[in-house]
Amino acid sequence: MSNSNSDTINLTSIFSLKSLLWKIFGVIFAVIAIKGFMIPNHFLDGGLLGISILIHEFYHINVGIPLILLNIPFVILSYKKIGKNFAIHSLLSLFFLGIFLSFLPVPAVTHDHFLTAAFGGVFVGLGIGFVIRGGGVIDGLEVLADFTHKKFGLSTSEIIIAINTVVFLVIALYLGIEKAMYSILTFFTAVKVSDYVVDGFEKLISLTIISPNPEVIKKLIVNDFNKAITIYKGERGNLPGSYGIKHDCDIVVTVVTRIEVHKIKKAIKRIDPKAFMFILNIKEVGGGITSKKKHH
């Protein structure tokens, strides 16, 4: 994600077939969620989508109108604070969203409340995730959260949860506590699905290994798996029943993807069954060879 407003507009990236397909599939999934699950059952999600459906419930206007109008200020904010390319990607995503909301016929899929909450959330999550993979967003709260995170230091999740708490309180007040509870379920399902779509098997994991044979572990990770490592100087030992017996050691740390971690763990166990390992999920990385761009 660019942090400079002076970045050059990359039309090749914006209008590439892959980027357009991600956006189109994402918007289609989002429209299926909105028209096939949520509106027929008077269900809401979090974010600007939830606010837009709430406006639709009150005033019976096309849900696409408030959804696009509410997103426009955030597109402008992203143009000024994040980057031109990201803003154009998002504007194009909103254009597709308006078209498909207006012209794609989607019948009500189910009237079961639990299925609506669960699968409505799944389809919303797929829609948001695919659009992000295409370089844009269809819910401007992500832009606000990113900007506020940089300005005030609050995490993105804290900001989004705080805003959505207000949305869910309004839902509870006007539509009832049951609808609010189902809306919360829809929201958290959507968040989990979109996170998985965006990160998928590329989600980064920190693997730490403490072994009496650190050189073998280092060679395995660097030479066999082509991964960079960081070495901390530490101590191993001090076990129950043998407190005070300790040895200097190298603590090996590497960053791998979700799909790689199982293979590396199995390989380490083969060459050193006594190696101690633990895994930490990484929320964010920057710099080095592990950095990833989600927006182009």
Automatic annotation (TrEMBL):
Its main location: membrane. CDD domains: YitT_C. The chain crosses the membrane at residues 20-39, 59-79, 86-108, 114-138, 159-177. Keywords: Cell membrane, Membrane, Transmembrane, Transmembrane helix. It is found in: Cell membrane. The keyword Manganese does not apply. Residues 246-287 form the DUF2179 domain. Pfam families: DUF2179, YitT_membrane. It is a multi-pass membrane protein. It comes from the Bacteria. The keyword Signal does not apply. This is YitT family protein. It comes from Lacinutrix gracilariae.
